[in-house]
Automatic annotation (TrEMBL):
InterPro entries: CBM6, Cellulose-bd_IV, Galactose-bd-like_sf, GH, Glyco_hydro_5, Glycosyl_hydrolase_5. It comes from Pedobacter endophyticus. The lineage of its organism: Bacteria, Pseudomonadati, Bacteroidota, Sphingobacteriia, Sphingobacteriales. Transmembrane segments: none annotated. The keyword Lipid metabolism does not apply. Coiled coil: none annotated. This is Cellulase family glycosylhydrolase.
Amino acid sequence: MSRSYSVLFILLCSIFSLKGFSQGFLKVDGKKIVDEKGNNILLRGVGLGGWMLQEGYMLKINKEAQQYRIRERITALMGPKQTQEFYDAWLSNHMRKIDVDSMKRWGFNSIRLPMHYNLYTLPVDEEPVPGKNTWLEKGFALTDSLLAWCKANQMYLILDLHAAPGGQGNDLNIADRNPSKPYLWNSEANQQKTIALWKKLAERYKNEHYIGAYDILNEPNYGFQNPDEDKNGTKEKLNAPLRKLMVEITKAIREVDQNHIVIIEGNGWGNNYNGIFPLWDNNMVLSYHKYWNFNDQASIGHIIKARDEQNVPVWLGETGENSNVWFTDAIQLLEKNNIGWSWWPLKKIGSNNPMEIKSNPNYDALVRYLNNGGNRPKDSNVYSGLMELAIYSRLENTIIHRDVIDAMIRQPFSNETKPYKQNLIKNGSIIYAVDYDLGRNGQAYFDHDTADYHVSTGKRSVGNSGRIYRNDGVDIAKDSTQYEKYYVTRIETGEWLQYTVNVAKAGKYSLSINAAANTDSGAITLHIDGKPIAAQIKIAKTESEKKFDSFVVQNIPLKKGVQKVKVLIDNGGFNLAYLQFVRE
């Protein structure tokens, strides 16, 4: 074969192999989402909340926390030029290819993109020609980049209109709603812009197989019939304006794109489908949202009923903001019912998500001012704090919470425990109490208060009350006297912690227990590989519950190699910092 034919042969093989590699569009097949070969596709994803649309709580801002007000207040402190620099830096740093690569490696297969319309088009009151649409390249370019990263990782990208023109509900922060301007629901211009935006998106991405679906309106929450007494639409019976708009959006999409799934959401933050049925498209998925309720079959009964009656797939488009216990139980429930899911969010300032953005002193001062008033911070400090925050949003600068990832990807399907840290026991080795094993409650640890179920119970609980370091049920606090040192607190009778250790040399060891207690009533029993080794070890009283001191237990036998050490709480009421093994 000549060289020219060889080159042609290789080129043709490459073209055909690439064509064969493509998985085609996702589509609806009865109550399943399938690929072009008819294989059931279970979406396991995360939403990029905080990237294009900042909800104040993600930044620890709880006063006037819509993004437009945060931006206005920052502008008043440091001027429009530096404010624009911050938002440009935020968009550039918060989401990059390394984030998508990591999500794929961790086990996710999809991403939900919460879009703010103002990155794609001007607000209706800023259009140079009323009724015309000015298209902005910024949002489309960001979406193109994200799609390219998803394609490189064979992940699906779901487009979600999170902030529609005018805002789609009375929960103002979600859609960055300015209540002084016309609503989406009482403004024909805002509705027409919303429809036009979806047609523009569909036209641009109609041939993209890795666009998984169009989630056309996030969490509508508006009481059409009785906005005064039912402002979020949870009791709405008709939902006529919502249905009308979603039908019109779908019609506009189908004028240019016959292939992609259209996802719809009910009123009342996605769950109230009264008046929405019958469905109007044969490639449609129902989305609902789930927060802070029990993870039992009854908790998803309404959406299962809708799935069965409409013969259509359902997808949990948004959930999270809870403990690892809740995450594991929810995913186990969902996948048992063949319901895909998208967690919320990927990263924020806070520990109950895969990545935590670290704060800094200048930013902390800004947050205190925005929330509580007081002395106005210097503009240079505001700028420094915000730009540092933008840099801290880069994956390599975040705290990656592998316990959260493990709770979502592995623990729903396994009771196995794994070491959180490689605890190698040599002479004098310390095991920090907070570094107990990775695993489910009752397997790696046991805690009485494990998650927040307040929607079901009417009473808030938190799991880890300290909301730092880890996201399990175990309560963790930070030692203010030592940098980056943490301890287990609010220890109750009957709870326990397990540590997988690797002992370098067999023998008798002294165990030094570092703890703090107001009383001398605390007691623990030590188990090794399931056998009690030392029972009713008394926890000595110290000067205060934050004043730690060590006391020693002699003659603890450890064999060489890997073994599991369990600290069982016979009587609680103390704080535990670390265990230290010293060979006798």
